[in-house]
């Protein structure tokens, strides 16, 4: 069974790749989870974040953005002492800020899901990459989404982080053509491979 090379060499990465990465997400709590985790990854490896995922789940109330939006300065100080997560003040403050912005998006669009999938009219982009080198760190789409998120007050959502989010939640299928998940994800997204 052939998979994307970035997922090889570690069971946690393989499991994430084989069961989650690129599967279309349409549930707001999952979107918020990936926003928190992708922002936490900035400057680090995805494996570093995956190893701390359960600690993040506990620290951020099961990724319940309505709860996280109410975190105050005292709670942020408490999180800075939590050895299970990445103790970076700016990233923790961004997660709380982004939960508040998340609620604003929901007021305006009904759900974050409607908002984010609206950038692709609800239809995932299916790429045809043969090598890891073919996958860009960001695209015109991620540039546009990141600019819009920043304009709405989101933090730690540069174009590269945003592109990682789009890949994770299935808005973009960047599994390599040789990967066993490529066709599966394409079918899950509602179509046949191009």
Keyword list:
mainly alpha; Endonuclease III, domain 1; two-stranded parallel sheet; 2 strands
Protein architecture, described:
This protein is mainly alpha-helical. It has one domain: Orthogonal Bundle (Endonuclease III, domain 1), CATH 1.10.340.30. It is 54% helix and 2% strand. The chain has 11 helices and 2 strands. It has helices spanning 11-19, 28-41, 46-50, 53-59, 65-68, 73-79, 89-109, 112-117, 140-151, 159-168, 180-188, and strands at residues 125-126, 172-173. A two-stranded parallel ribbon has the order 1-2. Helix 2 packs antiparallel against helix 7, helix 2 (28-41) packs across helix 10 and helix 9 crosses helix 10. The radius of gyration is 16 Å and the shape is globular. It starts with 10 loop residues before the first helix and ends in a 6-residue tail after the last helix. The mean pLDDT is 95.
Note the topology.
Blueprint: H1 11-19, H2 28-41, H3 46-50, H4 53-59, H5 65-68, H6 73-79, H7 89-109, H8 112-117, E1 125-126, H9 140-151, H10 159-168, E2 172-173, H11 180-188
Parallel strand pairs: 1-2
Helix pairs in contact: 2-7, 2-10, 9-10
Please state how the strands of the largest beta sheet are arranged side by side: 1-2
Mean pLDDT: 95
SS field, number of helical segments: 11
Q: What does the main sheet amount to? A: 2 strands, parallel
Q: State Rg.
A: 16 Å
CATH class equals Mainly Alpha
Structural class: mainly alpha
Query: How many structural domains?
Result: 1
Global shape: globular
For the record, what is the CATH homologous superfamily label? Hypothetical protein, domain 2
Separation of the first and last Cα atoms: 22 Å
Low-confidence stretches: none
Amount of helix = 40-55%
CATH architecture: Orthogonal Bundle
